[in-house]
Amino acid sequence: TVTGDTIVSSKASAAAAARRANQHRELEGKASVVLSGVEVPEPREDPSLKVRVDPDSGQTILCGMGELHIDIIHDRIRREYGIETYLGPLQVAYRETVLNHASVTETLDRTVGERRHVVTVSLAVGPADGGSSSGNSWAWRRSSTDQGGEVQVPVELKAAVDTGVQSSYYQGPLLGHPVQGVATTIERVSLEPGTSSAMVSACVSRCMLK
Hints:
The chain is α+β, with helices and mostly antiparallel strands. Helix content is about 30%, strand content about 20%.
């Protein structure tokens, strides 16, 4: 015998086990047809329909033009595929933005273990050139000493600031919705030796939320 063998006491038991195995395979074959997935109507048939799969929950999310539009798509899936699907509560994809310019300075002073991390960030935010419908952007404040129009910043510091700015764009300060149409200018970043990049990112994010 090898792993996976079924040991029985009689030929009748073996025949019964074989029948159950065949029935199980038949059920698996039917289930594979049912669970093969439902193809949502092609977006080219309805350009206003957006379909995406949530990477965390695995749910198929339909984005449409309103409740009536989603109900029509839901009805098409039921009629054309004969499958009853669950349609969760409709959610509005809110976005946050800024209307005025503002400047703020934040200092983070924290001791982790035996190391002290101190960083101060000054930045300014305001509406992007394209308005609230445009994307987000950020840049360093230029000075007369910058050569070639580019601010000379260490790579690690630039990456830490970028992480802090981008994380704050994902969750706005009002209701926690993504932020769009915002332009950020980093005016100054000063830190003491030994301060980690994670602390720089955290300070930038806290400064943005203000």
